[in-house]
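Friendly challenge for the regulars: who can give me the structure tokens for this chain first? No prize, just bragging rights.
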Amino acid sequence: MPPRKIYFNGIDGTTGNYLMEPQTIKAVAKAARHDRPDRKRLRQAPRGATRGLPFNVDPSDVAKAGWGVVFHKAESADVKKKLEALLEHRRKTVTDATRLKVLDYESGETTREWLNRHEVDAGTVTPSKVPYYLLVIGSPDKVPFSFTQDLDAEYAVGRLSFDTPGDYEQYVASLTSYERASSIKNGKEAVFFGTRHDFDAATQLSADYLVRPLATEAFEDGKPVSESVGFRSTSTVGAKATREALRGILSGKPGSAPPSLLFTATHGVGFALGDERQRPTQGALVCQDWPAVGQISDGHYLSAAQVPDDARLSGLVAIFFACYGAGTPRYDRFWRGERKGPPQIATEPFVAALPRKLLAHPSGGALACIGHVERAWGSGIVNADAGPQLQLWQSLVGRILSGQPIGLALKDMNERYASLSVTLTGYLDQEAETEKPIEDYKLAETWLDRNDAGGYILLGDPAGRLRTADLVGT
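First reply, four minutes later:
Bragging rights claimed.
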């Protein structure tokens, strides 16, 4: 049976209440029907799940697929200078100069306009014009989240957005050091961390149908997905998933190799427009310490400020299933009723502080962080018609642990976004043309699933990958 209500992740950092109360299926369907600005974007999105590289180019082969960096036209010379070391490093892999590009972005361009300006159309990837692997540099107020999210439906896209040129330099130094090192300190271990509160349906859903199954449920060969590619699987779920436990995972155990992957599923903290805590804290991970709905303090979550100074992050890929875990847009993508437009939730869009801290940590930054822009929805875990949907997450984790480029690891999520965009457009057009309404729960779930899949972004170089053959325990 379809659920009566949809539960949303996200906790108000001031009140401890939900950022949005559970909504009825009817209310969500009504929001989808009034989603006029998003409907315009739907029609600009790629018409189908496609990775349009030439037939003889393996997408995992960065040298053939190509690599490029995208700067806003007004990006500072200091920031561009800090990326020169990465460009030089990538030239050693992408030896064909026509497949390594420095591209620019002009304010206001849609994804298709940008591609057309570079002589490429949707559905066709031509590495000598626009490389398949693209690293977008700069704040989302200059290069919008929507540009990279739509581009990611066909390309392997990552983003870096830091407050200072020095942070870009630190990330580049950490990445290139990891890729050049004669030996690697990380172990073949994947850590799964998930909160589960007796009073909270959202974390019960993510713990029972996402974190625990990812860590322990048999994959195609009868083993959990991490073990199927030769990694140890460690899980911290429920009562043990405290903030100190998470800090301990980031610091590592003395005498042991730090993990190569960290997957977390928690609520994310959110703050109101104008709150001075929003930019430094939004998207912080609410841990098991959170005592009840209606109560909250900064001791209940892990923010950038609480990342240990001795954190061992080099060579780590972190995945955050949490509201605002990767960033916050200027406007809320979820609104209800007859509103003329979405409410503003931030003065400017921004990348979350926690992943920025992990990527540019002074002791060595993480390889990449994957997280959500805006709210994360549980409907991406369990489908009302089809039941639990674990394979998408198994593919994401499995691709990363098998050593594929991290940008390619998001392939299934991005293709799901493109496919659901087509389905949603068809539903809305069908209602307009036939005046026969689609069932509320089908429309609501498709809309939420589509927004959810499109909300995941990669922070870091999409061509980065785990050195699986060199990890401790190989």
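The CA atoms of residues 188 and 231 lie 5 Å apart. The chain has 17 helices and 20 strands. Your move, everyone else.
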